Amino acid sequence: MSTHTNDAAADTIRRYVSLLESGSADDLVALFAEDATVEDPVGSAVRSGRESIREFFNTLENLERRTELTILRVVADEAAFAFTITFTAGDTPLCLQPIDTVMFNANGEIRSLRSYFAPSDMTPV
Known about the structure:
Blueprint: H1 3-22, H2 25-29, E1 32-39, E2 47-48, H3 50-58, E3 65-75, E4 78-89, E5 92-96, E6 99-104, E7 110-116, E8 123-124
Parallel strand pairs: 1-7
Antiparallel strand pairs: 1-2, 3-4, 4-5, 4-6, 5-8, 6-7
């Protein structure tokens, strides 16, 4: 793949992490292919299609949250990245640092996202 494609994929990941902080579910879903899948976290039920993925991201909309991309690697039509998300659940501020993998389709849309973390990885801030 060309450098341009890798740059576009990296831009999509940067936008994804930014939208996790301040975007709506619709903003996030716009990055995904119609038939995309999300497994977040790995081992949980796989969400398939934009409507199912939208329902998943709806849970973020009412949370105060901050994100920071810490590592990003793009190779061909795949990417792996780590980021930090800090959010408040109830009265407890929590921090999570998942490692996600993404596969892109020919249009540059996310066709698969898998997030690696366990509940024990969430730490109080």
